[in-house]
Amino acid sequence: MTDLSTSLKIEPTVFELSSPGRQGHSFPELDVPHAEIPKSLLRDDLPLPELAEVDVARHFTRLSQLNHGVDTGFYPLGSCTMKYNPKINEATSRLPGFANIHPLQPIETVQGAIGLMFELQEWLKEISGFAGITLQPAAGAHGELTGVLIMRAYHRARGDDRRVKMLIPDSAHGTNPASSAMSGLEIVEIPSDTRGNIDLAALRAECDETLAGIMITNPNTLGLFDENLRQVCDCVHEAGGLVYGDGANFNAIMGISRPADCGVDVLHFNLHKTFSTPHGGGGPGSGPVGVTDELAAFLPGPIAAIVEEGDDEEPPLYGLVTPEKSIGRIKAFHGHFGVMTRAYTYIMMLGGEGLRAASEHAVLNANYLQARLRDTYKIPYDRICMHEFVAEGHWEDAPDIHALDISKRLMDFGFHPPTNYFPLIVPEALMIEPTETESKETLDAFADALIQIAEEARTQPDLLQTAPHRTPVGRLDEVKAARELVLCCWLPEK
Amino acid sequence: MFLPHTDADREAMLRTIGVKKIKDLFEGLPGEHLFPELDLPPGVTEMEALAELQHIADANETTGELISFLGAGAYNHYSPAVVDSILRRGEFYTAYTPYQPEISQGTLQAIFEYQSMIVALTGMDVSNASHYDGATAVAEAVNMAYHNFRGKRTKVILSPGLHPHYRETVHTYTVDSNILLEGEETPLDSGPEALIPLIDDNTALVAVQYPDFFGRIHRFRELIEAAHQAGALVAVHVNPLALGLLEPPGDFGADIVTGEGQSLGIPLSFGGPYLGIFATRQQYVRKMAGRIVGETQDARCQRGFVLTLSTREQHIRREKATSNICTNQGLMALAAAIYMSLLGKNGLRQVAELNFHKAHYAAAQIATLDGFELVYDEPFFNEFTVRCPRPVAEINEELLSYDILGGYDLGQTRAGLENHMLIAVTEMVSREQIDIFVDALAEVAHD
Question: Is A173 at the interface with chain B, CB within 8 A?
Fold first, then answer.
């Protein structure tokens, strides 16, 4: 375990490192005549920092060393699927043939790129069972908005204006209700039953002619495959509604269960979770959306398509098309192509068998950790889990210790904490998703740490409450940040 | 692939769980179609994958092989080697949103510095940690203005000079709301003043672009004054590189500045990932969507940074949040921060000037050609509109045989713009290449 507290110092800001007159990068001399720039258009001053290249390289390298990433250690952040990001993905996405092409080039000059998008669409269809895919959404929440807009457009196209209600299980991610609200829907929360499934009686009571649909996450955020999934879908369909699937937890079901086969009508993928593309410190993600045949005409454009069939001698001509009843664009250009190339590389390397093995081992790892922790931590919905599970970070005989304290103490062992205080239906939740790329040794070390922390909670609660101790900074004052609102800095006064 | 498990590991783990084989873990799953055979190509090794991807990439013609004059919202700029060298650090790119600040100070401080440099560049008070791209940043500006008036003002005026993709995105985002979008059909050559008669006390926002989609640099003082008199907000969408030279929107009264940050060191990458810039006035900070980093102190009294004002966001407010944004463009914001740190105040001005002068040289040369004409009189930055003697698609097809990527065909965007080409000239082209382009245009002027 690295002790970051002694080896690293607080890094000055780039503004504090500035020294007037320095410049970290130069451009070639002007080789054309000077044109007159109207003075009235010009800015007076540009208060940006001035640094040499070496200062910039060191500054950002030192900042990087203050981070925990998948490359530095275990990152069992529930529902985020922090699996290993293969380095080859970084190499392929940076090939000049991908990095240096303009989105508006004539299609004849970018057949490789559009062909790759087409094939990725086909692969995602096969993995999910859907009939149509758009790669345009920039992230999971953006995919949700896209999917909900498609659902609304579908109802509207049928002349059905009454459908204003979206059902959201109480275990859902916050983005689900927010995405529905953004498209003007009313939200009705559906409780979970004692086994962690969607409560069927509560669901049936809401299935009426005002139902636009339901947004489900399966496996859900408890890491459980909903045992009522078929009944839920049937019930919603019978009422004329559509089923939205949040694909955040797709890593549990690749090659095991296809959402479209289960009755899901619309689903977003998170390429940055399931398909190994890096999370980038909070983006860029990519949130392709898959839909059934009935909804394919509503997908946002452009979509990669074959615009001229090929034959034995000529390959097909790929182009970008907009579906007939499309909801329209949801961002500029074609989506996060640089993320697509990474996901494409990953799927190509794994193939169908490899994807299934990835999901199987994700489920194996989660169940192993759950089994190792069951005697120490309360598992409120204790059954075979999928790729993640939720434990309670609280004990009656250590009343002053909370999930937050356990999380902060875990950092001292070199681990990123689990997602905490989510899902909301479990008190003091610790949501643990190990992913398939972690070894038994890592899982054992993590379980050992959590067991030791449970002991410390009784014997040295102070050690937890003041944790972390071995990180570059100690526990941070979030109240002060929100009260004083210092959101930027400036060059020091001369 | 990428699995560390040995057979012995698997056996020991299954024993601990209390099942015999991995398949047993899925026994409780409902459904008839479990374990489908996926019809995908069989898996390959890294060596084979790289060869195949190289083959696909080779089928594309790049801006390294072609002399590019194509812009229209995505620009071919030079990204210094330091930018990508830092982006490749696993500590940055394999981390997630900095939910745990004690082990995320690198990401948090870098975003704080990004916010600070965006504030300096735009002349605004606060910046968020980014949106997905320029288009969604404009859509979020519409969203923010609508919520600022609690839905009581329903009109949003979009300048016809806003990028057509941005306008389309706003339409998609607002289709299920009661927001009325106006202004897009106002005449192109009458400037921002043409929007003033549309402003009334039902107007929440006026959104303009600077320089606009056609390359023109407009003055917005009169428009902004009229909007403010009616109590409406104004969003100015910028190309941040142009702000190396141009008066920042904060100085002429903008309430919101959005931008497409791709020109700050981010590769073209066939359209993404790019960077949505979003900055506003202090008084609207709580109305702004997206993540924000703030400075604070730790338990050891050291300076540190955290995500702040999260009570605005979906994971706390759920359906009451005004936006659903969660993941943003963290790594792209980092790229922009490194780029701006490297160039600094003088470097950014230098590259902006190179763009300005080269574009003006190209424009002057093209204007001398028979049949070609500069369409607008307004000042421009690195992009301008030219009326051509033939359809642009035909010209561009012929230019490709000279290894030239011609400008954007504006005929695709609006009636009346047939034969209009939008030409972008950046620091990446030399005088010699501009001359080759001009000569080629002269040669392909007639069929």
Answer: yes
Residues of B in contact with A10 (CB under 8 A): 302-304
Whether B162 contacts B209, CB under 8 Å: yes
Measured in angstroms, the CA of A369 and the nearest CA of chain B are apart by: 9
Could you report the per-residue pLDDT of A290-304, keeping only the tens digit for each?
A: 999 999 999 998 999
Amino acid at B74: A
pLDDT at residue A319 tops 80: yes
Q: What is the end-to-end Cα distance of chain B in Å, rounded? A: 56
Q: For the beta carbon of residue B34, count every other beta carbon within 10 angstroms.
A: 16
Among A302-306, B22-26, B310-314, the least confident range: B310-314
Cβ within 8 Å, pair B12-A356: no
Tokens of B401: 């045989």
Distance from CA of B229 to the nearest CA of A (A): 24
Q: How many contacts (CB atoms, under 8 Å) link A and B?
A: 690
Q: Which CATH class is domain B81-339?
A: alpha beta
Q: What angle do CA A336, A338, A340 make, to 5 degrees?
A: 70
pLDDT, position B190:
83
CA–CA separation, A353 and A348 (whole Å): 11
Which of the listed CATH numbers 3.40.50.300, 3.40.640.10, 3.30.470.20, 3.40.50.1820 matches domain A89-348? 3.40.640.10
List CB contacts (< 8 A) between A436 and chain B: 2-3
CATH no., domain B67-78+344-444: 3.90.1150.10
| Cβ <8 Å between B59 and A112 | yes
Q: State the average pLDDT over residues B259-286.
A: 98
In whole angstroms, give the CA distance from residue B246 to residue A38. 10
Residues whose CB is less than 8 angstroms from the CB of residue A454 and which lie 6 or more positions away in sequence, other chains included: A376, A377, A395
CB spacing of A279 vs B94 below 8 angstroms: yes
ipTM rounded to 2 decimals = 0.97
Write the CATH number of the domain with boundaries A352-480: 3.90.1150.10
- The reported pTM is 0.97
Q: Which residues of B touch A338 (CB under 8 A)?
A: 267, 269-270, 272-273
Q: How near does any CA of chain B get to the CA of A334, in Å? A: 6
Residue appearing with tokens 């230098």: B350
pLDDT at B101 over 60: yes
Q: How many Cβ atoms from other residues are within 10 Å of residue A168's Cβ?
A: 25
With CA atoms as reference, report the closest residue to A230 among B34, B132, B51.
B34
Contacts of A54 (CB under 8 A, 6+ apart): none
Which residue has 């012995």 as its token pair? Answer: B8
Q: How do residues B347-396 score in pLDDT, each as one tens digit?
A: 999 999 999 999 999 999 999 999 999 999 999 999 999 999 999 999 99
User: Rounded mean pLDDT of A31-38?
Assistant: 96
pLDDT at B323 over 90: no
Q: Where are the domains of chain B?
A: 67-78+344-444, 81-339
- For A23, A46, A170, B124, B290, the CA distances from B338, given in Å and listed in that order, are 13, 16, 41, 20, 21
Domain map of chain A by residue range? Answer: 89-348, 352-480
pLDDT digits (tens, 9 = 90+) for A42-68: 999 999 999 999 999 999 999 999 999
**DSSP for A299-334, written as a single string:** SPSPEEEEEE---SSSPPEEEEE--TT----SSSTT
The beta-carbon neighbor of A328 closest among B28, B106, B171 is B171
Question: Cβ contacts (< 8 Å) between A474 and chain B: which residues?
Answer: 102, 298-300, 302
Please list every residue in chain A whose beta carbon sits closer than 8 Å to the beta carbon of residue B334: 60, 281
Burial class (CB in 10 A: 0-12, 13-18, 19+), A39: exposed
With an 8 Å Cβ cutoff, are B379 and A38 in contact?
A: yes
Residues of A in contact with B308 (CB under 8 A): 478, 481-482, 485, 487
